[in-house]
Amino acid sequence: MYGGTERVVSVLTEELVARGHKVTLFASGDSKTAAELVPCSNQGLRLMDSNRDYLALSIMELDRVIRRQADFDVIHNHLDFLAFPFVGLSSAPILSTCHGRLDLPQAVELYGYFNNAPLVSISDDQRRPVPNANWIGTVPNGIDFDAVEFHPNAGKYLAFLGRISPEKRVDRAIEVARELDIPLKIAAKIDPVDQEYFEHAVRPYLNSHNVEFVGEVNESEKNDFLGGALAYLFPIDWPEPFGLTMIESMACGTPVVALDSGSVPEVVDHGTTGFVCSSLRQFLDCVSEVERLDRSECRRHAQLRFSGEVMTDGYEKAYESLLSGSWRKGSLGGSVGLAPALQSDVSVTGRGDL
Q: Most exposed residue of 32, 98, 263, 266, measured as fewest CB within 10 angstroms of its CB?
């Protein structure tokens, strides 16, 4: 179901194992992996009773990792800043991938305080609020293209996928669909905090305005949902760190029409895999032009940049840099590229359900 970070960690884990690395995955007990699995909860945290203390489970997960630090050459942390206090205490270097937004009020102070933590960003734009943090590279997210079916023919509806929230701006997607008189299908989860926004921005337009709310979809349903669309709408209003759904849509062959914010210009190749728009007016015009794009080229370009193999190449280079001691702030430049495979022991600390 919903879970971009979990999906990325899974793709990275399986590709590392396939390349001959010895990988230990610290994650939920219901995770499916070829790595050694250390269960840190019975099931994915989203599936648990809402009264459970998720932070407590994550702290215990980190303790399990640190107790085994001598077993690993590299510890790869996907719990954002929760692992930062252990960076100076671990015998194995800890690499942290930042998956969330970094423009929140205390981020500058926090990332300045933990300036010894080696970090990887998932887009160059993600770094902008904290440019002086200890960045060693940018590794864009990747997905398993073999698991995504290509859909050569454009559908007759527009798609919105992800979660219902004010910053994702599903209300803009509805406005675009109504203006162009094209059906819109919305497949998204609704967190309790966003229920009021859903009632105000979405529910009034259901049924009578050619807007359909599908609800949260699983992996198989998502493939057909995105692949069957004319275009995927990404009308965000926040500094999106990456936007995994964009490359999931491209992998299906469905172009993305997105507003220029956050990582969008780094992910969408304007005129090939979709359009990057500076205004809602331009957004409307580009949706009208999307049928002229070649869906096979959309997938091909996305695969060249955002496959699981390309992502793992980038992380191997980051691991090698840490192990050799040659890394320094900014030593990997922007988006990292190819690197030789390492035969190392890697601990991957994930979260949620994989």
A: 32
